[in-house]
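Quiz preparation item.
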C-alpha cells in the first residue's frame, strides 16, 4: 500500500522557503510572484495499518505548533503549482531518514523493496504568470533534469493531486546481471569499445592492454578459471586505474620543454617526482614533525606528542558543473572521507572550500550548462549542507569570479582531521593488508549513481559527459559511519582503512590488495540499492558514504557488533590473499582474473611538447596607470568588484562554531564583517595549542607567467598564516592544480604546447618556493581537463 503524507506550515506562519523562491524568481528571471507556499510530501511505499499511519503522521513528522499535515490533500491556494521529486535511483537522503525514523519508532525493519520518498509541491500565486515563466522557474531554479522529475500544473479546472499522481520513484531493473566478454582483435576494436563504454582509454595504453590478455601464459591461467578474452569488468577496472584522475599520468609524463625566446631546451621526466615528491622528502628529513606524506589519502603532521593532524584537498569540478548542489555536497563529504581513511582513521575537525565561477550577472551569448548564478548558489548550498549536517565546522574558503570558468567551474574542498599518535600501542599512521585479512565494505549501498566518475574527470566536459557520474552525498549516513569507525579504531579492530571515492571498490580494493599481493572478492555479497546491476557496475560505482576496511577474522564479530550499534551496514565481501591476482567472482563464477602487478606493466609514459612564449612575445605589456581624479570614488569602485566585495553572505551560511574549537574566526574586526587572513582552530579542547589554516590562489597571474603566479600564491598563504601567529618552521602545504588539456592538437587544442609549458613553470616554482620556505607538500591533487564546451 502506498500512502502520501502532505506537510505544510500553518497558513498564518511565515514560509521562508516560499519567500526564497519569490526572491529567486525576481532576481534570476525578473518574474514577480505575489506569494509562494511549500508543501513537503512523504510517500510511504510500505504496508501500515490506518492506526500506524496516523501515529506516523502525528508522532514523527508533524509539529502541532507550527505545522499541519494530512494523508488527504491539504487545501492550498495557487495559480500555478510546481511539483519536484527525485528520479528513480537518485539518493533521497530525507526519504531514507524518514524510513529510519519510522523503523526506530515501531522497532521494525522495512521489507525489501519498501521505502519512503520525499518530494516538494510549490504553490505559487501571481498576476499574469504564464506557463512559460513557471516552466522557467521550475527548470532553472527548482529542479535539475539530471536528478529530478517535475510537473507544472495550472489551477484551472484540474485536480492538482490527480495531475501529480501518486509517484513512487522505485527503481525496477528488469535487466538480468551479466558479464560480457569483449573482442580485442585489434587496437582499433579496443578503442571502439573504449569510446562506446566511456572508458577514456589512452590510445597509447591500448596495445599494452591487448598484449597482456593475448599472452599465452596469461590465457592458460585464465582458462583454468573459465575465462579467455577480457570481460567488461576487467576493462572497466583497467580504465579506472589507468585514468589520469587516479594514476596522474600527466604529472608523471615526459615533458619536452623549449623557451621560444632564448632557445633553452630541457626534458623533464615526471613533474610529480621532481617538483613535488623529491623536495618534500628532502624537507621531511630535517623536519621531524612531518609524519607521513604523498602515499595515503591525506598527509600527516605532528600536532603534539599525543596527536597527529591529517590534511588533504581535492576538487569536484565536473559533477558540480552538471548538478551544482549534488556535486559540491558529494565533494565536501567525499574529502571528509580522506582523513577518515588516513592511517587508522582520524576524526574530522574542519572543512574548507573554494569556488571559481563566471560572474553571477553574466548575460553573454554563450550558454553554459548552468547559469553561473544558479551554479554558485548550488555549490554554496552543497558545501553548507555537507558540513552543517555532518557536525563539522566550515570556517574558511575562497571565491573567485572570471568569465573563463563559464565552460567548467572549479570547486575546491579540503578537510583536516586529528588522530592519536598511537592506538593500542600501534603507530596510527602505519597500516597494511596481509593474506587472510577480511575485506569489509561499510556505509552506504551501491547503485548506478557515480559510475564513470573518474573517467569523466579525465576528459573535457561536453554534452556527451555521462550523467551517471553525478551523485548526491548523504551527510547523515556518513556521520554515523564516521562515529562507528572511530570507535572501532579505538578498540584496535582496524588493520587498514580507505575510502570508496574515485572508482569505488575497484580503486579501494585494487590499491589495497597490492600490500598483500592479491584479493578474492565476491560481488554478489555487496549490498545494493536495487537489483539488476551488472558486476562491472558494482565494481566501479562511486556511490557515496562507503569505506573499505581490512579486519582480522578474529575481530569480525566485535566489528559487526559496533556496526549494528551505530546503525551502519557492514558486509564482508571477500578477503585479501597472496595469490598475485585480483580475483573477482559473481555468484560463484569468476568474472575477472588479472595480475595485481598489471598496472605496473610497461605502459608508455605520456609525452608532451611544451613551448614557452614569454608574455612580451604574446603582446602583454605592463599597463600604464594614470593618476585617478577621485580616489574615494576609485576605492568604492574597487570594493564593489565581485572579487573584492564582502563574502560575509556566504560565510554566514557555514557553521564554524560546531565542536567548539574556533579561536580566530572567519570574520573579524569590530563588526565581525571582515574576512580573516586565516583561521585558528583548537582541535584538542583540553589543550591551548591550535592549528592555523588558510588558502591562496591567483589564477589570472597565470596568463602572464605561472611561475610567478605560484610564487605569489605561496608567499601570500605564508603571510596569511604568519599574521595569525603561525610558526614558519611548522607550515605544511597542500597543492591543488586545476589545468586545461595540455595535449597539443592543431585544431582542437592549438595552444596545448603553451599550456604544457605553463604547467612546467608552475611546478618549477612550486619546487623552488617550497624548498626556500621549507614547506613540505603534505598532500595535493591534480585536476586536469578543466576545459568545457559552450553552446
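Solution:
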Amino acid at each position: 500500500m502506498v500512502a502520501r503524507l502532505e506537510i505544510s506550515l500553518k497558513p498564518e506562519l511565515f514560509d521562508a522557503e516560499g519567500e526564497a523562491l519569490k526572491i529567486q524568481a525576481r532576481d534570476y528571471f525578473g518574474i514577480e510572484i505575489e506569494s509562494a507556499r511549500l508543501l513537503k510530501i512523504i510517500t510511504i511505499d510500505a504496508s501500515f495499518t490506518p492506526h500506524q499511519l496516523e501515529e506516523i503522521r502525528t508522532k514523527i513528522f508533524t509539529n502541532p505548533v507550527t505545522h499541519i499535515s494530512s494523508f488527504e490533500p491539504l487545501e492550498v491556494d495557487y495559480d500555478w503549482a510546481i511539483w519536484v521529486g527525485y528520479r528513480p535511483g537518485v539518493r533521497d537522503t530525507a526519504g531514507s531518514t524518514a524510513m529510519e525514523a519510522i523503523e526506530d519508532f515501531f522497532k521494525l525493519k522495512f521489507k525489501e523493496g519498501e521505502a519512503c520518498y520525499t518530494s516538494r509541491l510549490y504553490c505559487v500565486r501571481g498576476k499574469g504568470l504564464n506557463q512559460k515563466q513557471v516552466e522557467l522557474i521550475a527548470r532553472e531554479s527548482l529542479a535539475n533534469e539530471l536528478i529530478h522529475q517535475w510537473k507544472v500544473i495550472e489551477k484551472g479546472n484540474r485536480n492538482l493531486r490527480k495531475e501529480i499522481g501518486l509517484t513512487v520513484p522505485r527503481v525496477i531493473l528488469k535487466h538480468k546481471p551479466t558479464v560480457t566478454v569483449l573482442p580485442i582483435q585489434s587496437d582499433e576494436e579496443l578503442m571502439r569499445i573504449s569510446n562506446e563504454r566511456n572508458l577514456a582509454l589512452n590510445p597509447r595504453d591500448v596495445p599494452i592492454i591487448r598484449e597482456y590478455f593475448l599472452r599465452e601464459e596469461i590465457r592458460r591461467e585464465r582458462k583454468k578459471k573459465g575465462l579467455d578474452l577480457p570481460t567488461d569488468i576487467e576493462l572497466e577496472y583497467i580504465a579506472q586505474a589507468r585514468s589520469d584522475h587516479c594514476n596522474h599520468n600527466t604529472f608523471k609524463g615526459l615533458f619536452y620543454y623549449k623557451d621560444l625566446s632564448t632557445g633553452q631546451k630541457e626534458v623533464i621526466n615526471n613533474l610529480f617526482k621532481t617538483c613535488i615528491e623529491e623536495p618534500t622528502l628532502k624537507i621531511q628529513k630535517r623536519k621531524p614533525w612531518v609524519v607521513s606524506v604523498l602515499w595515503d589519502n591525506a598527509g600527516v603532521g605532528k600536532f603534539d606528542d599525543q596527536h597527529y593532524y591529517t590534511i588533504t584537498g581535492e576538487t569536484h569540478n565536473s559533477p558540480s558543473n552538471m548538478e551544482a548542489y549534488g556535486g559540491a555536497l558529494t565533494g565536501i563529504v567525499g574529502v571528509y572521507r580522506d582523513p577518515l581513511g588516513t592511517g587508522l582513521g582520524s576524526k574530522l575537525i574542519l572543512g574548507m572550500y573554494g569556488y571559481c565561477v563566471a560572474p553571477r550577472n553574466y548575460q553573454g551569448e554563450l550558454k553554459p550548462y548552468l547559469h553561473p548564478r544558479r551554479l554558485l548558489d548550488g555549490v554554496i548550498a552543497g558545501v553548507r549542507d555537507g558540513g552543517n549536517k555532518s557536525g563539522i565546522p566550515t570556517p574558511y574558503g575562497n571565491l573567485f569570479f572570471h568569465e573563463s570558468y563559464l565552460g567548467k567551474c572549479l570547486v575546491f574542498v579540503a578537510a583536516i582531521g586529528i588522530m592519536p599518535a598511537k592506538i593500542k600501542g600501534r603507530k596510527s599512521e602505519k597500516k597494511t593488508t596481509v593474506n587472510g585479512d577480511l575485506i569489509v565494505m561499510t556505509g552506504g549501498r551501491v547503485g548506478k549513481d557515480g559510475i564513470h566518475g573518474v573517467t569523466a574527470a579525465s576528459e573535457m566536459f561536453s554534452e556527451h559527459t555521462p550523467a551517471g557520474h553525478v551523485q548526491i552525498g548523504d551527510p547523515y549516513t556518513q556521520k554515523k559511519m564516521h562515529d562507528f569507525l572511530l570507535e572501532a579504531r579505538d578498540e584496535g579492530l582496524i588493520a587498514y582503512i580507505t575510502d570508496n571515492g574515485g572508482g569505488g571498490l575497484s580503486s579501494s580494493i585494487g590499491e589495497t590488495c597490492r600490500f598483500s599481493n592479491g584479493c578474492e572478492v565476491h560481488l554478489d555479497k555487496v549490498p545494493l540499492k536495487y537489483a539488476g546491476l551488472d558486476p562491472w557496475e558494482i565494481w566501479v560505482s562511486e556511490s557515496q558514504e562507503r569505506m573499505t576496511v581490512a579486519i582480522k577474522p578474529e575481530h569480525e564479530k566485535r566489528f559487526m557488533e559496533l556496526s549494528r550499534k551505530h546503525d551502519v551496514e557492514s558486509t564482508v565481501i571477500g578477503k585479501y590473499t597472496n595469490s598475485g591476482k585480483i580475483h573477482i567472482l559473481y555468484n560463484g563464477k569468476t568474472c575477472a582474473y588479472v595480475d595485481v602487478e598489471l598496472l605496473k606493466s610497461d605502459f608508455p609514459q605520456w609525452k608532451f611538447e611544451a613551448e614557452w612564449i614569454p608574455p612580451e612575445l604574446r603582446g602583454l605589456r605592463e599597463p600604464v596607470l594614470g593618476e585617478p581624479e577621485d580616489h574615494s570614488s576609485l576605492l568604492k569602485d574597487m570594493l564593489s568588484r565581485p572579487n573584492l566585495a564582502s563574502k560575509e553572505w556566504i560565510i554566514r551560511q557555514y557553521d564554524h562554531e560546531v565542536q567548539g574549537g574556533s579561536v580566530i574566526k572567519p570574520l573579524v574586526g569590530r563588526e565581525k564583517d571582515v574576512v580573516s587572513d586565516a583561521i585558528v582552530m583548537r582541535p584538542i579542547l583540553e589543550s591551548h595549542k591550535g592549528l592555523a589554516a588558510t588558502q591562496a590562489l591567483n589564477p589570472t597571474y597565470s596568463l602572464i607567467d605561472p611561475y610567478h603566479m605560484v610564487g605569489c600564491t605561496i608567499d601570500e598563504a605564508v603571510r596569511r598564516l604568519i599574521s595569525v601567529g603561525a610558526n614558519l618552521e611548522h607550515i605544511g602545504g597542500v597543492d591543488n592544480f586545476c589545468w586545461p588539456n595540455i595535449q597539443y592538437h592543431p585544431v582542437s587544442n592549438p595552444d596545448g604546447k603553451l599550456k604544457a609549458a605553463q604547467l612546467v613553470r608552475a611546478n618549477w616554482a612550486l619546487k623552488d618556493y617550497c624548498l626556500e620556505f621549507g614547506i613540505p607538500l603534505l598532500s595535493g591533487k591534480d585536476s586536469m581537463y578543466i576545459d568545457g564546451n559552450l553552446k
